[in-house]
Amino acid sequence: MSRRSFAALAALIPALSIAAAADVSAQDAIALAIAPIPTESEQATAKVMQKQGDGWVTLREGAGPFICIADDPGADGFHSACYHESLEPYMARGRALTSQGVTGRENVEMRMAEIEAETLEMPSYAILHAIYAGEGWSGDMDAVLRHQAVIYTPFATAEDLGLPTSATRGAWLMGAGTANSHIMITP
Length: 187
Description:
Largest sheet: 8 strands, mixed
Strand content: 25-35%
Shape: globular
Strand order of the largest sheet: 2-1-3-4-5-6-8-7
Helix content: 25-40%
Radius of gyration: 17 Å
Order of helices and strands: HHHEEEEHHEHEHEE
Distance between the termini: 11 Å
């Protein structure tokens, strides 16, 4: 994402926070949702979904390879994520478990067990792009707005990839050797 695009995004997010109690236009929600995707052509073709209340709605159908999750206006801070369509079974299962009250680590562990049992499909690799800002974000994008890329690599180990397994600036492997193994890339 270019610095100019980041600046445009930064200008939209405070409006979203202020308008959390009011209605945010679907157009603004979509613009923020697709922002993590690095290319305009893929942004233009991404499907966009958003949690509204206890359910999920599709804000825009898409013909491209990405599915984006718009920020939840009912949650603190800001978060938007776009992932390759091959991750949809994994992500959809996470949403289904959440709707059943299974959240946090338990949600991830249940999906990992299902992948290991081969009852939940997981691609051999796929990417997710995200941007987020914590609660109380003031619009200073360099202070708290973050862009992150995640490459899911089920069962990969540090030895397989030559990456550290503890958080570091740049790339590192989280969940090494598990069904939820993924490379975290934080610029």
